């Protein structure tokens, strides 16, 4: 057995089950037995037990059972979980996936460490220092890109044109989910800034580190491309972020995202543009997958782990005409090239958890992002 994927939809009390086996199966060699809290699968001389610790199924509701090559797929209804989505005893509906924030391990904690300390930025690839030593007095989050700068303030008493801010001073660090705005003056002269292509390139390894900002005297630096080195302890190196986490945050940290909503993720690699079109299918889906891959082939009992994902339709293209056809009035999000590469790898690996007949819908691939 290779992969086990169970999509649980508690609100409609059903689940889709997809099982990928190592070898191509003969239908006559498969026996499937469903119990309330366990699935028993016999494949020739092998017997596998799948305990269902997180859900209870109704065995008699089995439907859509399909065996194709080395894929087994089926659908079954689940019993309501007391107190989760209402019952005859209560009408209180809990919100799935709620969790407390672990501030110690929260990536945003890096922003609090920056304030009031001497540090410099360096390229995360070649470890080249790209700024002089800087002391940040203000480390502030930027409002959402959806809003125009002129909408960031509720009133205007002094007649100032707020559409031209923010203007980061040398001691300011303004940050967003996947980038930060910094004053040009703190960067070393050797750093390559191309005004025409709007790219910032490391002078040592020629990696693209950011882009030219539309705001006065500032540079946009991608979080995943830089590290912070603190002067009081040179062994204290902190990476600003991770490419995959940057992509996940684009999807998971949004409060305005809803089913059917589209996001266009784009990046520039030299003169080539890359586009990733995302459309939300299920914002908060419970997914059960194998806890230990090694036990799939060794043990008789396969434990499952529960997680929350956002299920997506996605399409990758380098064709700007095709992108515009699919993305009328779609929110655009510019990212670094490593983020785009991590996103495509993550989504394509998630697509492999579905049988071929389930992978494509209306020329989009089906995948998911962990929350």
UniProtKB/TrEMBL annotation:
GO biological process, one term: protein polyubiquitination
Enzyme class (EC, first level): transferase
Gene Ontology MF terms in the entry: cyclin binding; ubiquitin conjugating enzyme binding; ubiquitin protein ligase activity
Protein EC: 2.3.2.26
Source organism: Neodiprion lecontei (Redheaded pine sawfly)
Reaction catalysed by this enzyme: S-ubiquitinyl-[E2 ubiquitin-conjugating enzyme]-L-cysteine + [acceptor protein]-L-lysine = [E2 ubiquitin-conjugating enzyme]-L-cysteine + N(6)-ubiquitinyl-[acceptor protein]-L-lysine
Name of the protein described by the UniProt record: E3 ubiquitin-protein ligase E3D
Subunit text: Interacts with UBE2C/UbcH10 (E2 ubiquitin-conjugating enzyme). In vitro, interacts with cyclin-B.
Biological role stated in the UniProt entry: E3 ubiquitin-protein ligase which accepts ubiquitin from specific E2 ubiquitin-conjugating enzymes, and transfers it to substrates, generally promoting their degradation by the proteasome. Independently of its E3 ubiquitin-protein ligase activity, acts as an inhibitor of CPSF3 endonuclease activity by blocking CPSF3 active site.
CC annotations in GO: cytosol; nucleus; ubiquitin ligase complex
Record-linked InterPro entries: UBQ-conj_enz_E2-bd_prot (IPR019193)
Taxonomic superkingdom: Eukaryota
